[in-house]
Please model this.
Amino acid sequence: MTHAIVARQPGGPEVLDFTEIDRPVPGPGQLLVKVAATGVNFIETYQRSGTYKVAYPFTPGSEAAGTVEEIGEGVEDFAVGNRVATAEGTACYAGYIVLDAAKALPVPDGVDDHTAAALPLQGMTAHYLINSSFRVEPGHNVLVHAGAGGVGLLLIQLLKARGARVITTVSTDEKESLARGAGADEVLRYDGFTDAVRDLTHGAGVNVVYDGVGKDTFDGSLASLRTRGSLVLFGAASGPVPPVDPQRLNAGGSLTLTRPSLAHFLGNPQERLWRSTEIFGAAADGSLNVRIGATYPLAEARRAHEDLEGRRTTGKVLLVP
Model:
C-alpha cells in the first residue's frame, strides 16, 4: 500500500483527500518510482476544480522525482536504484508512481531530490523557448514577461548565460528584487512597458518577447518587437488572447507569432535527454539557481493549493510524501 491524494469530484481544495491506495505495479516499458518530491503546478488547480475536464476519481500531478524500485519488462536504460525525474508523469501526488521509461529523465549526482522535482517542467520549458521556439544569440534584446515567475527566473538566467540583454516585467518591488537577483538587465512594471522597451532599445524594439501572460500583455508585446521580431506566446495567465488578424504581423514589421507547448518539444527520448541533461547540468554546476518557495507534506496538498491560488507562494511549490 501507499498514500496518494485523490479528488473524487470537482471542487475547491477541500476535495483533495489524503488516502491509502494499492501500490502500483509497473508494466512493460515502465518504472516503479518511490517519490521523493512532487512539483505542484497551477494547471492542477484547474483540473481539480473542473475547469479542465478530467476523469474522477483523479490524482493530480505530472512532475516528480524519486528512485527506481522496480523495472518492467523490456526496460534497458534504467536500473533499480537510479534517480529519475519527469515532467510527463501521471498521478504524481503519491508515494509511488508508475512511469513510462521513455519519459524518465536521469538525475545527476549533483542535483538533490527537491531540485530534481522542481526543475523538469519549467526548466525544459525555458530550454525549448530559447533554443527551439526562437534561437537566442549573444547580443539579442529580449523581453521576458513575469520575470519573477518560475519560468521567468530560469529564463533570465539562461538568457544571460547566452549573452542576451534581458528586459523583464514584474508587478511588485519584491518581484523586481527576485528578477534582478536572477540577472535581469532592466526591470519594468507592466504599465507602459512598451514605451519603456522602445526607449531602452533606442526605438528599435526587441528581437523576441517571451509572453506567458497572454491577454493583458499581448498587444504591448507585439508593439515591443523590432522589424522581423518574434512573439513567443507560451501561456495565458491573464486569459486567452482574442483572435488575431494576420495582417497585424505584416503591419508590425513582418513579425512572427508562435504558440508553443512543452509536449511538442519533447518529441522523443533523445530530445528529452538533450533538454534535461543541459538543464540538470546547469543546476549541478551552480550556474542555474532553482528557487523552491515552499514545501508541504503530501497530506497537506489542500493547503498547498489554497496558498497557490491565494498567490501566497513564490518560486516552486513541492509536496513531499
Q: What stands out?
A: The CA atoms of residues 166 and 185 lie 5 Å apart. The chain is about 30% helix and 25% strand. The radius of gyration is 20 Å.
